[in-house]
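Lab notebook, bench 4. The sequencing result for the construct came back, and we need a structural model before the next group meeting so we can plan mutations. Quick request posted to the team channel:

Model the 3D structure of this chain.
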Amino acid sequence: MDRLIYTAMTGAKHAFLQQAGVSQNLSNASTVGYRAMEHKFRAVPIQGEGAPTRAFVVDASVADVFEQGPLMATGRPLDVAVQGAGWITVETPDGREAYTRAGNLQVNTNGQLQTATGLN
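Done. Here's the predicted structure in token form:
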């Protein structure tokens, strides 16, 4: 037999995770290239003795939202935007490949094109 407190806490835990995801999305709403996170939950019936209406909550999926944001004209000649699906490939300081959608590019002192955070 299940303990009712554990059943109730699954809903509370996932409501907290949903709230944390919404908070993260709101705090990064103006960050260039940020992709929102979306939580989807589903109810799972509890098997066994007890009320047949009891259920607990599980994450059905946690996914990033890759919808394109609004394009903005900046007037800077090196600013680019990725339209539709796609990424800009950059190199990290340790030589690995990374991806970004932030297109506010600049030229460094060596004449190399880089992101605002310094990735080539």
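The helical segments are 4-27.
Will bring this to the meeting.
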